[in-house]
Amino acid sequence: MSAAPGGNYASGRLPEELTIPGWRVALIIASFTFSLPGFLNNAQAGLALGLNQAALAALCAGLILCAGACLTALVSVRTRLTTYTLVQRSFGLWGAALVNIVIAIIHFCWFGVNVSFFGDAMAAAAQQGYGFPGDFNLFVIVGSVIITLSTIWGFRTLDRLAMIAVPFVGVILIALCRSPLGDNPAADLGPAAAPPVPMSFGIALSSLVGGNLLTVAAMPDLSRFIRTERGAVSAMLLSFPFCAPVIMLVSALIALATGQTDIMKLVVAMGFGVPALAMLVLSVWTINALNLYSAGLSMAATFPRLRQGVIIVVGGAIGCLFALLGIINGFIPFLIALGLIIPPIAAIYVIDGFITFRGMEDVPMVSVRWEAISVWIGSLAVTLPATRLGWTLTTVPALDATFLAAFAYLAVLRLRRRQSA
Question: CA-to-CA distance for 403 and 84, rounded, in angstroms?
Answer without folding.
Answer: 22
